[in-house]
Write a structure and sequence with these properties.
Helix content is 9%, strand content 52%. It is mainly β. The protein has one domain (2-313): monomeric porin ompg (Porin). It is globular.
């Protein structure tokens, strides 16, 4: 009986360790976790400053297809190196334009240090985001600036129930025009069988209200009533008829480029629900499917991401 309980405990610890690498748990020395994921995001909706959603002006629609390679490597049992790299394929189209761009996205590197391990696992994480690998593509791939983040992570195993929970809160300083952010996350996961597992996350971003638009950022919301329609007339396209008393109609007079990537607004609030189902094919190799809709936002896009991931531990 004791041997059976010990075996089940070790099996649970192994399975749950493979799922918690992005949380408070750190890697063992010399161990490495890789997650290669393809994300597909699509939207034709924007959140306004009151959290209400509206259709994009001019029947606009935005697509973000990207490949992300996330890694964690144990420098020692308490200190883990984190890297994350994106390559993006973006598309924006409306009744007048159809723009595409592709290229490397933001690169992130950080360290996670386990402060305490007992009834709770407590870790501190520092992260640096480098945003200078791309230029001024249209749609724009990113904000072209660097970020610095400090984050506190808490994790707890719920054994003998085959599950865990986690809580994270961090502050991200964003160099340049964009507003700083408070980032927070609540997570619950469990094993359904020896190989099948799932997790749910509430993932939030809260803008701190200190964006500096004068440093060169144009707001992502339509605010320019003096949009030059000359290029449209030259191309033989009739501009839309606008009722000045209708705020949503007035959005048609904004610069089209302002909306070609609504995900990189200089200041916004966003709350997402991340639902993941995974299958551990072997001890080291697994696959995951993920669906992440936005459930609340302000001054950003309203959409959902579908993803397929491959995980590998060595």
């Amino acid at each position: 009986m004791i041997k059976r309980s010990l075996s089940l405990s070790l099996l649970f610890i192994f399975l749950i360790a493979n799922q918690l690498l992005a949380g408070a748990w750190t890697m063992k020395k010399g161990q490495m976790y890789n997650r290669l994921v393809f994300n597909y995001y699509e939207t034709d909706q924007l959140y306004d400053e009151d959290g209400d959603s509206h259709s994009m002006p001019l029947d606009g629609r935005f697509y973000d297809r990207n490949l992300n390679w996330y890694q964690e490597y144990g420098l020692n049992d308490r200190l883990t190196l984190i890297t994350s790299f994106y390559y993006k394929w973006l598309s924006y189209h409306d009744v007048y334009v159809h723009n595409r761009s592709n290229g490397p996205g933001d690169f992130e590197i950080g360290l996670k240090y386990k402060i305490y391990e007992g009834a709770l696992v407590v870790s501190l994480q520092g992260l640096f985001k480098y945003g200078k690998l791309y230029g001024r593509e249209n749609p724009e791939i990113g904000n072209r600036q660097n970020d610095y983040e400090i984050r506190l992570l808490l994790g707890k195993s719920l054994w003998p129930f085959p599950g865990y929970c986690g809580l994270e809160v961090g502050y991200r300083y964003r160099h340049g025009a964009p507003a700083d952010e408070v980032r927070y996350l609540a997570e619950f996961g469990m094993n359904f069988t020896r190989k099948l597992y799932g997790r749910v996350k509430l993932d939030g971003i809260w803008g701190m209200g200190n964006a500096d638009v004068e440093k060169g950022y144009r707001p992502q919301e339509p605010v320019n009533p003096h949009f030059d329609i000359t290029p449209l007339l030259t191309a033989g396209v009739s501009p839309p008829r606008v009722n000045p008393s209708d705020e949503r109609q007035n959005a048609l007079l904004s610069g089209i480029e302002n909306l070609t990537n609504p995900r990189i607004a200089p200041e916004y609030n966003l709350l997402k629900l991340d639902i993941t189902l995974g299958y551990q094919i072997t001890e080291r190799f697994g696959v995951e499917v993920e669906y992440t809709p936005s459930i609340y936002g302000e001054k950003t896009s309203k959409g959902a991401t579908a993803a397929v991931a491959i995980t590998y531990v060595w």
